[in-house]
Design a protein that fits this description.
Elements (H helix, E strand, L loop, with lengths): L1 H4 L6 H9 L13 H16 L28 E4 L9 E3 L2 H5 L16 H11 L7 H13 L6 H23 L8 H20 L1
Antiparallel strand pairs: 1-2
Length: about 200
């Protein structure tokens, strides 16, 4: 219970209830009262946050705790923070590895396509087995909304993005060592059919 007291992603009642399930009923009377456990939990969370507000009213009030300024891998997570004295304060959460990755739609990397736009837009993605829709992005947005609840605070969002960053690093590491992520059989069949029709279309042009 002491370990989970400082985790703001869990409700007080949830932490207490989960902890009680691991204890026999005969030992329940020796535990502190629920109110005392709640006060202890609030104290642990306040120690973790320090001067940081969980739900700041405006950007100048934002204080990011030191432990949230680095990723779980130990890299810098707070790339840019122009400071609370800046009326147009800007906070960018990223690291050097993110900056080196190619940006979708970067105008400096555009070139004249080999095919007309109406063919090239999907044709290139089909042959490279890339997603042809943004359903994967929509799925990530759905997961995000489920994980951080309906009314997230700034620190809850920051903690979620920090965990998401760690998961993304894990996926990059798997790709670097050559792991191939499989696709459902229905999707593979659809891709093969699309490639066949594209090949026939190009031969007819």
């Amino acid at each position: 219970m002491n370990k989970r007291k400082s985790q703001a992603n869990y409700r007080k009642s949830t932490i207490i209830a989960n902890s009680l399930t691991k204890l026999p009923r005969t030992s329940g009377h020796s535990l502190p009262s629920k109110d005392k456990l709640t006060r202890q939990k609030n104290y642990q969370r306040s120690k973790l946050l320090g001067d940081a507000k969980s739900a700041p009213s405006y950007r100048q009030e934002i204080i990011i705790p030191e432990q949230l300024q680095v990723t779980y891998s130990g890299n810098n997570f707070l790339l840019i923070d122009t400071g609370k004295d800046d009326p147009d304060r800007m906070i960018i959460l990223a690291n050097e590895e993110n900056i080196r990755l190619p940006v979708i739609g970067d105008p400096s990397k555009r070139h004249v396509p080999n095919f007309q736009i109406k063919y090239w837009n999907v044709y290139k993605r089909v042959w490279k087995d890339l997603p042809r829709t943004i359903k994967n992005i929509e799925a990530w947005h759905k997961t995000l909304s489920q994980d951080i609840e309906c009314h997230p605070t700034f620190l809850k969002l920051l903690k979620h993005l920090r965990r998401e960053k760690r998961f993304t690093e894990h996926l990059f590491d798997e790709i670097k060592v050559g792991k191939v992520f499989g696709r459902p059989k229905k999707e593979i069949k659809k891709i093969k059919t699309s490639k066949f029709f594209w090949k026939v279309t190009i031969e007819m042009i």
